[in-house]
Amino acid sequence: MAKVTPVNDTYPVSPPRAWAEIDLDALRKNLGVARAAFGGDLMAVVKAGAYGHGLEEVARALAAENIAFLGVANVGEARRIRMAGVETRIYLLGATWSEEREEIVARDWTPCISSIDEAEQFNRLAAARGKRLKVHLAVDTGMGRGGFVADHLPEKLAQLERLKHLEIEGIGSHLPSADEDVEFTLQQFDRFHSIIQDLGGPARFQWLHLSNSAGLLGYDPGLCNLSRPGLMLYGISPLPAFQGRLATVMTLKSRVTLVRTLPAGHGISYGRQFVTTRPTRVATIGIGYGDGYPRHVSGTGADVWIRGRRFPILGRVTMDQMMVDVTAGADVIEGDEVEIFGANISVAEIAAKASTVVWEIFTGITPRVLRCHHSVESGHPPS
């Protein structure tokens, strides 16, 4: 159970109503699966609070595994990692804006470059500090979100290489549909390889990277020597065929706060979407969409896990609570732990019922849900 700091010495400290148990040993296992599947170096993607798993704790655990980079979305995330004492190189996965760049240069974080203007400002800032900044060339091979398009790229690279305070050490692109469109993804790999050859071949760059989790698991890396696993590190494969190789990292839990028997014809939750047809033993659970559990699962047949079995959610999920039919579980009582998702009910199942993606479920778990990190392998108890 998580450690909670008392507000004062007068009253006992209540246990949390909703918490997420983060298994750092499982995280390391999944990193090992990525290593074995790719064979090259890894950039572990820890943006969005390590996909909701806790940025600092996850970054520290992964940094101890000798990875090449930690991938973040913005300078705020980069700053938090450094303040946590992590020294692994930090790569900024998206375009930066002008007022962020001085800090990037000062702290030697590694940006990707999508335009000549961006590169020229980085060059000026690096020159003012008397240093060379390592950067990666971002190339748009089909994502449409950032990076140079392939037209006239050799000439643009020549322009960039005249900026003496930049060291273009890498080149990367991104796969938008590796988990959905095999043909297009294979074309992207071919296009990326052709671009590299047009720019002088792989020896011109230290790092060549294209694959996300789906690309790493499902495709030949070709010339690439760096991959960027994200979702798979957190225990979910974007390609279902590989799911059995991965270990569950996050288990979202709550507890039963109330158990009552309601008569037939009694509405449950807002809008009376569900009305009992028989006397029904109903457990109220202390978690809702205010904690990040998706309201859109309401009425879709979603379950929770209590005392070793599934029980169905009744009616609409509310902000702070949900109701569950435990008529078949006479042993369910107030205070029982409830698995919302984890090893027994996959987060992928919940995402499907909510008509969304696992990425959104993970990153939507709100700050009021306590993260409890534990690692048997490293001798770290839950915290």
Number of helices: 11
Radius of gyration: 24 Å
Oligomer: single chain
Order of helices and strands: EHEHHEHEHEHEHEHEHEEEEEEEEEHHE
CATH topology description of the largest domain: TIM Barrel
Number of DSSP strand runs: 18
| CATH class assignment of the largest domain | Alpha Beta
What would you call the shape?
Answer: elongated
Low-confidence stretches are none
Report how far apart the termini are.
8 Å
How much of the sequence lies in strands comes to 15-25%
Estimate the mean pLDDT confidence.
95
CATH-assigned homologous superfamily of the largest domain: Alanine racemase
Largest sheet: number of strands, sense, barrel closure: 8 strands, mixed
Helix content: 25-40%
Number of spatially distinct domains: 2
Characterise this structure.
The protein is α/β, with parallel strands linked by helices and 383 residues long. It has two domains: 213 residues, TIM Barrel (Alpha-Beta Barrel); 118 residues, Lyase, Ornithine Decarboxylase, Chain A, domain 1 (Beta Barrel), CATH 2.40.37. Helix content is 27%, strand content 23%. The chain is built from eleven helices and 18 strands. Strands 1, 10, 13, 14, 15, 16, 17 and 18 form an eight-stranded mixed beta sheet that branches. The chain has an eight-stranded parallel beta sheet with strand order 8-7-6-5-4-3-2-9. The chain has a two-stranded antiparallel ribbon with strand order 11-12. Helix 5 packs across helix 6 and helix 10 crosses helix 11. It is elongated and about 80 Å long. The model has no long low-confidence stretch (mean pLDDT 95).
